[in-house]
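Journal club side-thread
Mid-discussion, someone asked how the predicted structure for our own chain would compare to the paper's figures. Pasting it here so we can look after the session.
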Amino acid sequence: MKFMARYDTQVLSSLLKYKNELISIELLAGLTGIDDLDRLKSIIDALVTDEIINRENHHQVTLTPKSRLKLAFLLIKAGIDVEHVAKHLDWKEFEGFTKDILLLHDFNVHSRVRFKSSKKKRYELDLLAIRNSIILCIDCKHWSARTGKKHALKNAVEKQVERTIAFSNLEDFSKFDIEKRDDLQLMPLLVSWLVEDIKTYQNVPIVPIFQLSNFLNQIDAYIDELKIISIKKRYKII
């Protein structure tokens, strides 16, 4: 199998489990049990060439949050159990990778957006992404498979709609670099780690992270089918 020959799942798994950013070839050999350093170096060369990891110097490589997500996807492609892979990633890495995808699609992105409603209730959006008239209010769900998942997803969607409505009612958007315009459209969105049993709920999309890029490419085409919250004109938008 070409995949196994090029990468080796034991190497991918050991890199994913290793929590420090910098790792030496010698340490990786110890973690994987691979004594043939020439073979190990060829696997590392392939990972560097394919931009999965970065080379620090001849004996060391670096692992970024983006690297760890790519390693996770490769392991899943190789047939490793998704839930087993997901437990080695934390929510910050998941959220950071989501942000990187949005930036690649020309969104201006704000992380951890905290605000109060007119009734002084506190809210937080994991990510706020702005491109032209579209404003995505995103909740990143780094969940593995578990009992009651469908109910939890529906509940998460309802809460995200509430957050999005509360955000739409803010009087001042200036700190989010949102231009004054009449056609702003706010869209609640859940980004998940796994492919979920439900793809939308109340017209709110639930998008697996590995499908997010494709979703963003097509968002203008089917935006009319999705949950949209308009800005009330009486509010001041700078």
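Post-session note: DSSP finds nine helices and ten strands in the chain.
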